[in-house]
Amino acid sequence: MKKYTVYYIIKANRREWLHKMEVEAANSREATKVCKEKVYAKTKKNAFRPSTSINSHFWNPTPELVAEALKGIEKDGYYRV
Fold first, then answer.
1. How far is CA 65 from the centre of its chain?
2. Most exposed residue of 3, 8, 35, 55, measured as fewest CB within 10 angstroms of its CB?
3. What is the 3-state secondary structure (H, E, C) of the chain?
């Protein structure tokens, strides 16, 4: 088992919020499935576009944008996409 950081979107109030979760899984596909199940059990909301890469959540990811998103997630626990 390997530890993965899964980034996912929660939709609320017509906005999208980027979150992250640490999970242990055999591969990245299984990690995204585990993340979706845990998020649904915890919040009763769907985790949209789960991925182990934060770059997949941005149309044109620049290092500054990714750094800002990671800083926002660390500070508040989420980032508005």
1. 15
2. 3
3. CEEEEEEEEEEECCEEEEEEEEEEECCHHHHHHHHHHHHHHHHCCCCEEEECCHHHHCCCCCHHHHHHHHHHHHHHCCEEC
pLDDT grade, residue 59 (50/70/90)?
low
Q: pLDDT digit string (tens) for 7-24?
A: 999 998 888 899 999 999
CB within 8 Å of 15: residues ≥ 6 apart: 80
User: The pTM is what?
Assistant: 0.84
Query: ∠20-22-27 over CA atoms, to 5°?
Result: 110
| Cβ count within 10 A of residue 50 | 24
Token couple for 6: 């899964």
Structure tokens at 8: 């996912």
Using the structure block, give the residue that is written with the tokens 């944008």. Answer: 65
